[in-house]
Amino acid sequence: MTMSQIDVSMSLAEMVDAYPGLAREFERRHLDYCCDGAQTLADACSRAGLDVDGVIEELSAVCRPAVPASWSTMTADALVDHLVFTHHRYLWEELPRITALVEKVLHVHGARHPELTDIAACYTTIRADLEPHLLKEERVLFPMIRELARTDVSVEFHCGTLRNPIGVMLREHDDVGALLARLRMLTDGHTAPADGCATYQACFAAFAELEADTHLHIHKENNVLFPLVVRLESAR
Q1: Are residues 53 and 105 both part of a single domain?
Q2: Which of 26, 113, 137, 192 has a 20 to 30 Å separation from 80 between CA atoms?
């Protein structure tokens, strides 16, 4: 898809799948393509107070044609493996590192920057939400998806339909999305203060990367994997 072919009636999720480079551009404009990925570019720009024609022009200036995202054509079991080895691995490795940064920055700068107390509390809640969520996916939902994807016959699960655990995951995605938005607000868009040391800056940069990666992670599940699983289960 080339930028000249962008249709403002397409959903943000469809646009990111067709043109992966748009994910970063949507992040910069705070256009939600993951939890609210069904919204069109026109609607998203309207809600954000952005001129859609201006946004398209800006995107045209920075983006080049690209092949569709690899995840958009994966089988369900392959996509599950991709999620685990890419986004889950990132979170398992990165969350403890960010915790150490947050604790150090709070200890050194907390007296001069009392807002760090709320920032640290928000991040702690994000980690406390994400880690059990990852375990539920890796130990419960994803094995069932693999089983479903690798058979041509009807499969019975203890949860009844996979729509039930998927519904839980969707609600938890909404919750962590709201927490990430709050963290962005508390950190003034992940902008370290002028007197922030290198660790302070590294911490806030890690927050920004965490938000961007989690948004893409949620997009792949909400808008690609879960609809695919629902279709597979119905077909079985």
Answers
A1: no
A2: 26
